[in-house]
SET domain and MYND-type zinc finger protein 6
Amino acid sequence: MSSQSHLPSVTTKTVPGPAPNGMGNGLFATTDIKVGEDVVHAKVPFVAVLDKPRLDDTCSACFGKRQMETGTELKACTGCRIVKYCDRTCQAKDWKFAHSLECSVFQKLKPQVLPNNARALLRMVLRTWKGKYTTQELGVFTNLETHIQDIQESQAHLDRLNLTSKAVKSYSETNMTQEAIMAYAARLDINSFNLTTAMYDRIGLYLHPYAALINHSCDYNATVGFDGEELFVKAIRPIKKDEQIFISYIDTTTPNEVRRKELSERFFFDCKCTKCTKGTDTPEDKFTTTPKDPSTLETAEKQALELLQEVTKSDLNPEEEIKKMESAMQILKQTSNWPLTRQPYPALRDQLILSLLSINNFSKAFLHTAIRYLRIDPVLFSPAHPIRQLHAWVLAKLAIYLSQEGFESNSKEASLIQQSELNFHYVLWYILADLASRQGESCTVPSFKRLVGANFAQVHNEFKANGMDPSTSKAVVSAEWKKLERLVQVALDQE
Ligand SMILES: [Zn+2]
Ligand SMILES: [Zn+2]
Ligand SMILES: [Zn+2]
């Protein structure tokens, strides 16, 4: 039942229409949509650019999709030496799409490299000027709101947009007015998505005017993912014909006040979604018991958030990051009122896992990833959610690593895992089997699904080569799973 929208590169089961609650336009389902199905699939971006640090290690044409499959070494454009590509195929594709228009500008500005938003704006302006967009594409884009009125209330925001558009006007040497360029910049600011890899790592900025029509809800029914330059919006819940499609613009696991502040400051609206109308009467705001003295909880939250900010905003070494995250988690735990699933507790653990992985502390990372998989994600995310699948994948990778490489000799965590007598092969088989069996109803993108499928097949075949089939020995697998659950409890008690 999917159909082409009036944009040739977009396949969708939606149609635009006026949305209630002053939300302007939105997208509405033209048919019933099942969990995991594509709601919108855009093959070609309106604009997509890499973040500055990614220009060096990610292909500017396929955005890492082919690297994931083949691991080729990238070659720089011989003109500007700023953007890099897998090979001539990727290079030729991007040259034709836009790089032929911008390469000389990049050369002139060297050694300066423009930030992501200026490179995106330059691309859009040059492609518009050279007639590379279709009339329909430009039509949908110019109909997007600019929120210039709201932006004018913040001088800093206005100055920033002014500066970027002035610069892009002069670099591009176009005859477009600066006002028109500024309107482009404002639309980019408010409508762009985080471009991510198939493994959900952020790598850049992405804009598609049709996908930009999707409104926000903290109680969303669809999620966004990328596979190379292709965008996928998939249903995370069953969606009925005529229902409005919603995605989340922000992290919706945070408490009511945090969500509403972020939405109003960054996107200029007052959220009236079904979750926000419940006020603080949702799991995001709940504590394990009603606190006797709420001010101790506020103080703990403030201290924990400050520590998290210190780690995400500054350049500390991983050991310092780990120390800060662990002390922030202690502060929350000592309130004896803070659920593991209430923010910022999960965010602290996520950051801790990243820091542990960066120094190859795999035993400790395994314990925290197992806690996240068993105790946190089932509360925060529905089974089809890509974040949940991604976290399961990280746990599987750690199980593979520990089963092959063994443990570091003298850590507390390594001995804890060894005492549990966990058989990593069975645990690994179970996680991958579970992931593989959910593929059809999952919101992950095709490259991610292929990777999971290939790994599961490999692990399963290894068992078979040894004359075993875990799918027929359920008792053995479930005994191993109980060991994992016990291990998680012991690890939590010792935190
Ligand atoms: Zn490539
Ligand atoms: Zn170039
Ligand atoms: Zn909301």
